[in-house]
Amino acid sequence: MEDMSLPTLLEQAHRIHLLATDSAVHKVPFYIAELIEKSGHDDRIENLKVSQSKIKEFLAFCDAMELVPEDELETHSVVDRRAKKIARFKRQHAAESKLLELKERKERRGRSTKAASPLSTSTLSPRDDDDVLDDDEEREAWLTTISLAICKALDLIEMLKKEEEMLSAIKENQAQEGGIEISEAILEERAKTVQDWHRNAAARARYMKPATPITCATFA
């Protein structure tokens, strides 16, 4: 950052401010995509297409904010894709650890505040507590939450694309062969893939909610 010019620094600061202000709104398409994907609508292929569209909308916003890692934007070979998945897994793990660290840090400081003299905290109204923010930690929490959401969105859209391709191929095969039943093995494979993804997503769900505003009063 020391090498950045003043206009560049101001532009970066403005971008981060917009992100912290609007990120909850811009993550809505991603959450909608998850809900659509989990819905029990009869036309599964249509569900998959709509869900992918919403994820792309979310990723487009992140790309415009220059938050999507460069190695996620282009893939040239199977080796590249494998390396990309490994790097994504590491980013996801780092984001989860960072959010947990921020949460624990806030809880520790909260306990310290409560243990302090009641007179020092009773004079602060809830509004005062909200108005005096620790900008660095709030920004870090938002950026980390977005980073984790990007990892999750990229994993989900890859899974949905594969499922759509598989179901489309099955549908085409049925049309050509007069409605042959979908093999039990294929159905089991699809169900296992979806269940595994949702199980992993559920385990990470607590990290997907943005941290509550971190204030000087809370961290005193």
TrEMBL record:
The lineage of its organism: Eukaryota, Viridiplantae, Streptophyta, Embryophyta, Tracheophyta. It comes from Lactuca saligna. This is PP2A regulatory subunit TAP46. Gene3D superfamilies: TAP42-like family. Residues 114-125 have a biased composition (Polar residues). Residues 100-133 are annotated as: Disordered. GO terms for cellular component: cytosol. One of its GO terms (molecular function) is protein phosphatase 2A binding. GO terms for biological process: regulation of dephosphorylation; regulation of signal transduction. It comes from the Eukaryota.
